Amino acid sequence: MKKLRNVAAALLCSVLALTACSPGEKEADPGDANTNAREGVQELTYLYFTDGPDEQATRNLITKYEKEKGVKVKLEIVPYANLEQTLQARLAGGNAPDVARLSDLTNFREDLLDLNKFQKEALDGKFIDGFDKAAMGPDGQRLAVPSDLTINGVFVNADQFKKAGVPVPSEGKGWKSWQEMVDAANKVKAANKTEYGVAVDVSGHRFSTMLSQYGTTLIGGDGKTVAADPAKTQKMLSDLQKWNKDGTMPRDLVLQAGSKYKAANEIFLGEQVPVYVSGNWQVAALAKNAKFTWQAVPNPCEERCGGFPGGKLMAAFKKSKNPALAAEFIAWMNSADNQKQMDAEANFLPTRKDLVDADIPFAQRPEDMKVFLSEISKTPEDTYTSAYAPAFGNSAKAFVEAVASVLAGKDTPEGATTKLRTGVEKAIKDAG
């Protein structure tokens, strides 16, 4: 029976045909042909980590897929901290899952299935260009599909802004520079006697948001060269130094974090700061925990606007027991209708181009989520290349260390920029 299924799958793969669909239409895909030819119940394993409300949203879609396709999907949930170790062990032991949700492809690229062999027409050109490029192999292989997006951005304490008589920025009336945002924050700080004006998560990812707005990224557009334009990086570090020194920002937050990630959400929730730079994943947490009126607002601009991206991907494995079915499942989950359902229920941002301007009925704080949605089109393409380069993790660590050295007075912005560029160069070399 197994041999018959393999022969059937091989024959089907040679005659796959797709038609492009617009949002709202049912997509015809090779999976339809594969489904019609299946003998008995087919099964898939989906290795997954959850961010919270997305688990139920994922289960809802899986139930829909099972009914529609006659397939049994086993959802295997692991803690994010154990994901890489679990997956490496399973691959080494010949027990690869069919599909996995990943935050980074770096350590698995050689193990990933080229989805173009099964679902090329269903997937080509459908996703945000920068993120899509990060999911491709060196020879155009589709190693994964971007499944959900995060964008860094800004939250404000609207009660404190109202008390200070300072207008809250909105689409088309946003802050045109970091200095303009800092000036507004300090007016609110003075009126409310808060401890600080602006707080930023201690994160190479969040600092990269600011760096991008100042006109550069850590890693170049090819993912293999140092960017971090010296003059622009120095300017960014100089401004950060100034605002931490004058009390606008909580310098101790960075110094106590060392090289580790540390969120500034507790400072914002404690109403010690009116402006908080983080990302759309905080919407659900703030909705649950904030005791004041708050809202998301557009990112400040500088040389350019937008945020900095992150997100997750769905990938299949060469050692999958049913690669054609795994590819079909990924394509189905990320069709326009199904990704829209996932985004609405899980409060995710879309990765599909045809959903960036769509009216997504987000489950929580839809108006705030739409602010982050509007930031997608403003976010430069090179930020995706930088964020998903194999060397980004160690480059981001070097960035946090550079910021800390400047704020501690151990280095100048010029010296820290030189060391940062050296750190990024080493990270690229180490990543091969």
Protein topology:
Blueprint: H1 2-13, H2 30-36, E1 42-48, H3 54-69, E2 71-77, H4 80-92, E3 99-102, H5 116-123, H6 129-134, E4 145-157, H7 158-164, H8 178-192, E5 198-200, H9 204-213, H10 230-245, H11 251-257, H12 265-269, E6 275-279, H13 282-289, E7 294-297, E8 309-316, H14 323-333, H15 336-346, H16 353-356, H17 366-376, H18 381-387, H19 392-407, H20 413-430
Parallel strand pairs: 1-2, 1-3, 5-6
Antiparallel strand pairs: 3-8, 4-6, 4-7, 4-8
Report on this structure.
The chain is of the alpha/beta class and 432 residues long. The protein contains 20 helices and eight strands. Strands 1, 2, 3, 4, 5, 6, 7 and 8 form an eight-stranded mixed sheet that branches. The longest helix has 18 residues. It is globular, with a radius of gyration of 23 Å. The N terminus is likely disordered.
Keywords:
alpha/beta; 8 strands; eight-stranded mixed sheet; 432 residues; 20 helices; disordered N terminus
